[in-house]
Specification:
This protein is α/β, with parallel strands linked by helices. The chain has helices spanning about 5-15, 45-65, 80-90, 130-140, 155-165, 175-185, 195-200; strands at about 15-20, 25, 30-35, 35, 70-75, 90-95, 110, 115-125, 145-155, 170-175. It contains 7 helices and 10 strands. A 6-stranded mixed β-sheet has the order 7-6-5-8-9-10, sandwiched between helices.
Length: about 210
């Protein structure tokens, strides 16, 4: 089975991602969403976790063969960076959302030397704001950021534009379109719901996809 489809079915199976188009979730921003995503659940499902970590390793080897260090995003990317680093025999660390206010006041945890080739490990990309903050911190520290690997991406225009503007490559195990398609195939949603879900993805601020 194709990797993106396998991971999509895995995430749906453990409800790390699930759709509720007729009873939307409300994000902190106030946006109504037909999808809920919590990839942390992959860590408590060993079979799915194995697929995810092996998949991330495959993506890293194929897309960033020169990688010398893996850096996880705080906090969701840390475990995945650690497991992938262990499998690949590479050092790993992580980037805090802000510098510590005690000790050495580090924002980057783990040894990172200027010029080292780094891959950022992230669990989820929507508008890409948080992961690009991590990229910027690493670049300011002198790292050569090769790009990002992530478990799932929404493929939102805002996120794609931000990544392009920052000249940062991202490769994901699966994506919103693939998971929506798998959800219909598995009977989680109706085939007719796919267009509504894609409408949300294309413009989250437009709530016309919601049935009144």
């Amino acid at each position: 089975m194709e990797l993106s489809k396998l991971i999509a079915k895995d995430l749906l199976g453990i409800k790390a991602v699930f759709f509720r188009p007729d009873e939307p979730f409300t994000w902190a921003s106030g946006i109504k969403s037909p999808v809920y995503c919590d990839n942390r659940l992959t860590l408590t499902a060993p079979a799915v976790r194995t697929d995810v970590e092996n998949g991330l390793v495959t993506l890293i080897k194929e897309n960033y063969p020169e990688a010398e260090v893996l850096m996880g995003t705080s906090t969701a990317g840390i475990a995945h960076a650690a497991i992938c680093g262990h499998i690949m025999g590479l050092p790993m660390g992580y980037v805090r959302s802000g510098a510590k206010d005690h000790g050495r006041q580090n924002q980057i945890e783990g040894r990172l030397l200027p010029g080292q080739k780094v891959v950022v490990v992230e669990d989820l990309i929507s508008t890409a704001g948080s992961v690009l903050e991590v990229v910027n911190v690493l670049r300011e520290a002198g790292a050569d950021v090769l790009g990002i690997v992530s478990i799932f991406t929404y493929g939102m225009k805002k996120g794609l534009d931000r990544l392009a503007a920052a000249d940062v490559k991202n490769v994901s195990l699966t994506n919103f379109d693939e998971i929506a398609k798998a959800a219909a195939e598995e009977g989680y949603i109706a085939e007719s719901d796919i267009a509504r879900l894609i409408a949300f993805r294309n413009d989250p601020s437009d709530e016309s996809w919601i049935k009144k």
